[in-house]
Amino acid sequence: MRKALLILTLAFSPMLTPGLAHAQCGGSWSGFLSGIRSDLQAAGLNARQVDAFLAGARQSPAVLRADRAQGVFRKTFLEFASAVISKNRMVNGAKNAKRYAKTFDRMEQTYGVSRGVLLAFWALETDYGAVQGDFNTRDALLTLAHDCRRPALFRPQVIAAGKLFRRGDFDPQRTTGAWAGEIGQVQMLPDDILRNGVDGDGDGHVRLKTSAPDALMSGANMLRDMGWRPNEPWMQEVTVPDDLDWSKTGLTTELPVSDWKARGVRARQGQLASSLRGSILLPMGRKGPAFIVYPNFRVLFEWNKSFVYVTSAAYFATRLEGAPRLDPGAPEPGLSVAQMKRLQQKLVEKGYDVGAVDGILGANTRNAVQTAQEKLGLPADGWPTRALLDRL
Q1: Which end of the chain is flanked by fewer CB atoms within 10 Å, N or C?
Q2: Residue 240, number of CB atoms within 10 A of its CB
Q3: What's the CATH architecture for 3-69+134-190?
Q4: Domain Peptidoglycan binding-like, which positions (predicted)?
């Protein structure tokens, strides 16, 4: 289940209730709930519905502890992928692909999203629905909306949950999920459910916790809403020549696939999608595994903002559709968390934007590393090494 992954998934939706972007946070709990009550009524709930939705609402210290205790993103791609892509998940992926074949057929025909992608997210989010989280969703959202770190993100989700309650698809007392308020087998926020929820099993309701067809169809609809290009690939493993211009690798450079082929990039299996544009991804540097990623890969960052999570999910999806195990190569040793923080601090001192000095090799840090490597005459593959730290 996501747990530590959730917060990087969340993006403030332009479709959320107007007037809440600078919503009040902090202060007394009762005063905060009074403001929420007004927002719910403004959103169309009557007084009786508001009373029922907020009955017994309480703050959750466990949610705040989970919010402050995220460390999973400090793993490298190979560490994370090895941990989450287990034999059991591969076997259960094949079983679920067969069990819900009709749903996947309909999903691919309707939304153009490959079944491997939804199978991968379904597995990584909840182990195919087995572990969906036991935090009370209403209380989690209220707690995070009251907390002053991201009220503009979570307060609108409280209102969206209220709307789901009004239509009969949310039980404020019994609905549980992940600590950041995501619900169901593919972990969707209330507003995502309002916008993209699909009744996949034809029972007249969108039940993402108990209905796999609802969850899969809704997840595919959400990806399409995020910009998924129907019936196009997202990632392929490739081999790259030793003399490739490493400064052209990474997500900041996208070239026609024909250009990459002319530079010596080859698919490890099958053929490259010559009609598309792509980027060369080296998650562990030039000596580690290599992928070409297509426009649909970038859409996955709308599902989760973590580089290591998205890359692992995308690779897992290819495995579930028959790709072989990747060639891990022989990556240069990476940095410890303490070393990564020192590297980030040195980059900040030299004027680079690394995001936060947190020991995590995120997109901003990768870009800064690659630029610094190029300036120092090092192979500019975006992989931070002790040699780079010493040069800085």
Answers
A1: C
A2: 19
A3: Orthogonal Bundle (1.10)
A4: 339-392
How far is residue 252's CA from residue 276's CA, in Å, rounded to a whole number?
Answer: 16
CATH 1.10.8.350 spans which residues of the chain? 3-69+134-190
- Which residues, at least 6 apart from 351, have a Cβ–Cβ distance to it below 8 Å? none
**pLDDT at position 363, please?**
87
Compute the average pLDDT of residues 120-141: 97
**Average confidence (pLDDT) over 155-164:** 97
Q: Average pLDDT of 265-272?
A: 96
Q: What dihedral angle (degrees, nearest 10) is formed by the CA atoms of 314, 248, 325, 120?
A: 0
Give residue for tokens 């949610």: 63
Q: In what order do the strands lie in the sheet with 235-239?
A: 255-256, 277-281, 291-293, 235-239, 266-267
Residue 270 to residue 32: CA distance in whole angstroms? 57
Q: Decide: 122 and 128 in contact? Cβ < 8 Å.
A: yes
Place of tokens 């010493």: 390
Q: Is 279 left (phi over 0), alpha (psi -120 to 50) or beta?
A: beta
Average pLDDT over residues 271-277: 97
For the segment 349-377, the average pLDDT, to the nearest whole number, is: 94
Tokens (6 digits) for 202 = 């034809």
